[in-house]
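Thought: the user wants the 3D structure for the chain below. I'll pass the sequence to the structure tool as-is, report back what it returns, then summarize two notable features.
Action: structure_tool
Action Input:
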Amino acid sequence: MAGMRRNGNVLQISARVGIPLDEIELMGVRAQSAGGQAVNKVSSAIHLRFDIPASSLPAIYKQRLLHLSDRRITRQGVLIIKAQQHRTQERNRTSALARLRELIRSVAVVPAKRIATQPSAGSRQRRLEAKSRRGMTKELRRCDDE
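Observation:
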């Protein structure tokens, strides 16, 4: 898969961060799709299990991953990814590792802090003018009988 490098036995996340493949448990399971002749014989889907607290990831990565509200992360901190999109086990394995890599990369990026700003003088003036126009419209609709 393009962009996914595996140096020896390491899944490379970034230039400085990598996960040893022995920390990632990959199991072949049966896919849950409509099957053909070999549906109950071939285990083409992959279950990837990654124990976040026990991993060698930097502490900040672990903390951010564990604070995600992702249903794939169990209460014990184990990330479970099921890959069954492809017909071959190898492509599903590559897909599961790529999804793990992208999830970890997503927590590596620190979102920029939002800086509160004040509305401009022109926008304040336009807002007040629009309010008075709406008020005039409503006033013209009123009945003067009362």
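Final Answer: Structure generated. Residues 6-108 form a domain with the Double Stranded RNA Binding Domain fold (CATH 3.30.160.20). The beta strands are 6-7, 10-12, 18-20, 24-29, 45-51, 78-83.
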